[in-house]
Specification:
mainly beta; four-stranded antiparallel β-sheet
Amino acid sequence: MPRWAIPLLAIDGDAATLWHTFYSGQQGQLCCSASFSNHRPRSSCRSAVFGYLPRSGSEGVRSNGNIAGYEFAVSDNGSDWQTVKTGTLAYAEVATVWTDLGRDITARYVRLTETSAVNGREFGCCAEFNLSADTVAVPPLRHSPLLK
């Protein structure tokens, strides 16, 4: 597996590395997801928001694989998933986008699934993915080239 195809690169704390789906072999289907566990037996993590940092490629926020549509799901066993939130990420610059989950969530596993990309291509990527139990103040969006 190529180094960039490893989902753990999205949670390594280094914005210079990123997880990216394969660049070929997926024509006609967008199925990009990354699942993470807290790796503590019989333990769960609590979160109220998730953060997504898009890649900073040559096209800025419209770079290959940056997520537009998403589904956020949780599981206690890694098999049975419950969708917590779906939506569209709106961002005008390459910076972490925080999404309020609407309630505190406690689960051992979390999964972020891309349902659409900002540039319409069939790739997915993530420079960094974060969870937080704290409420994050989100500044009002001034202008986004993704909103029409």
